[in-house]
Specification:
Strand order of the largest sheet: 1-4-5
Oligomer: single chain
CATH class of the domain at 131-194: Mainly Beta
Number of helices: 4
Structural class: alpha+beta
Order of helices and strands: HHHEEEEEEH
Shape: elongated
Strand content: 15-25%
CATH topology of the domain at 131-194: Nucleotide Exchange Factor Grpe, Chain A, domain 2
CATH superfamily of the domain at 131-194: Head domain of nucleotide exchange factor GrpE
Distance between the termini: 129 Å
Length: about 200
C-alpha cells in the first residue's frame, strides 16, 4: 500500500475500498496562512496611506478655506481704498476752495472753482460706473422711482413723473438710490372712482 497505511478510510457505497490507489497524489491546494497574512498587511498599509493622504488633503483644504476667508474679509475691508484715494484729491480741492472763498470777494472765481471740483468728482464717480436715473417726463417705474406724491394732472399722461425731488443713481444695472418723485394721476380716473 502507499503512504497512508495507517489512515482510517471509510468506504463509500459507490467506490469499493480495494480499488482506491493510496499512492496517487491529490491536487489539494495548500492554503498558505502566510500568503493571506501578507495580503492583509499590504491592504492595511495601503489603507493607512490613503488615510494619511486624505488627512493631508483635508488639512490643505482647511488652510485654503481660511486663506480665502481672510482674503475675502480683506477685500471687503479695503474695497473702497481706490475710490477713497481718488476722493482725497477732491476733498483737498474743496478745502483750498473754501479757504480761498473766505479771502476772496470775487464770487465768479469761487463759483468757477466749485464747478471744477464738481466736474472732477462727477468724473471719478462716473468712472466707477455711477449713472443718474432719468426721471422727469418718464413713465413711473417702481424699479427706479419712489413716489413721494401723486398729483392730478391734465398736462401729463397718467402715471408719469412730473417732478424729481431727489435724483436717483445706479451703478451699472443696480439701483443704489431711487429717484424721489411726484407722479401724475389722471383726474378722470379719480372722478370715476369717487362716483
Amino acid at each position: 500500500m502507499g503512504k497512508n497505511k495507517d489512515a482510517k478510510i471509510e468506504s463509500s457505497k459507490n467506490e469499493p475500498l480495494e480499488d482506491f490507489d493510496f499512492d496517487q497524489e491529490t491536487d489539494v491546494e495548500e492554503i498558505s496562512v502566510d500568503k493571506h497574512f501578507k495580503e492583509l498587511e499590504e491592504s492595511r498599509k495601503r489603507a493607512g496611506e490613503y488615510l494619511d493622504s486624505l488627512q493631508r488633503l483635508q488639512a490643505e483644504f482647511d488652510n485654503y478655506k481660511k486663506r480665502v476667508d481672510k482674503e475675502k474679509a480683506d477685500l471687503i475691508e479695503y474695497a473702497n481704498t481706490n475710490l477713497i484715494s481718488e476722493l482725497i484729491d477732491v476733498m483737498e480741492n474743496l478745502e483750498r476752495g473754501v479757504a480761498s472763498a473766505k479771502d476772496s470777494d470775487d464770487i465768479e472765481s469761487v463759483v468757477k472753482g466749485m464747478e471744477m471740483v464738481y466736474t472732477e468728482l462727477k468724473g471719478i464717480l462716473e468712472s466707477k460706473g455711477l449713472k443718474p436715473i432719468e426721471a422727469e417726463g418718464k413713465k413711473f417705474d417702481t424699479y427706479y422711482h419712489e413716489a413721494m406724491m401723486k398729483t392730478p394732472s391734465d398736462e401729463y399722461p397718467n402715471n408719469t413723473v412730473m417732478e424729481e425731488f431727489q435724483k436717483g443713481y445706479k451703478i451699472k444695472d443696480r439701483v443704489i438710490r431711487y429717484s424721489k418723485v411726484r407722479v401724475s394721476v389722471d383726474e378722470n380716473k379719480n372722478n370715476n372712482t369717487n362716483k
